[in-house]
Amino acid sequence: MSNPNKHLVWVIEDDKIMYDIIADGFKEFVGGDFELNHIESVPKALKMTGHPEVILIDTTAIAGHGIMPMGCWSLFEANLGYLVEKHLSAVFGIYSGVGVWAEDLIESIQDRFSEVKITQTKREAWALKDLMKKSGFEVSEDE
Fold first, then answer.
1. Do the domain assignments include residue 142?
2. Do residues 56 and 121 make contact, with C-beta atoms less than 8 angstroms apart?
3. Residue 87 lies in a domain
């Protein structure tokens, strides 16, 4: 059950070790007013209930395969599109080891949903802190 006093953040990351690194950095650099939930893939996130204010997504977790199979770009776009449509009021941050994947996905989503708040970010804590600040959330100013 979510804590109503904290901002709900979903981290959609298929690598548990990477999620732990992100979560530790997020808590240290962004602050304690956020409740992080780990979800392994966008298909799993589509089955979740709740209203996250921020959704951070690794592109490899979008299809739910860990790596994008050749010829499955439309699966990526469809899964991400369904998630955005379901949580249109959330702020989306997409990160990828292959930056062009995130750029192309963001462009596709912005073409479909002009009002969406979606950007490319890095998984490093400083980048996530910057994303949260730019999105209007109060974050810890401790360095």
1. no
2. yes
3. yes
Residue 143 inside a domain? The answer is no
Residues 125 and 25: beta-carbon distance below 8 Å: yes
Q: What domain range is 59 assigned to?
A: 7-134
- The closest of 81, 72, 74, 143 to 111, measured between CA atoms, is 81
Quote the number of domains for the chain.
1
Q: Which of 67, 135, 21 is nearest to 36 (CA)?
A: 21
99's tokens: 């930056």
**Each residue of 60-105: pLDDT tens digit?**
777 665 555 555 667 778 888 999 999 999 999 988 766 677 788 8
99 domain residue, yes or no: yes
**Which pLDDT value is given to residue 25?**
87
- The pTM assigned to this predicted structure is 0.87
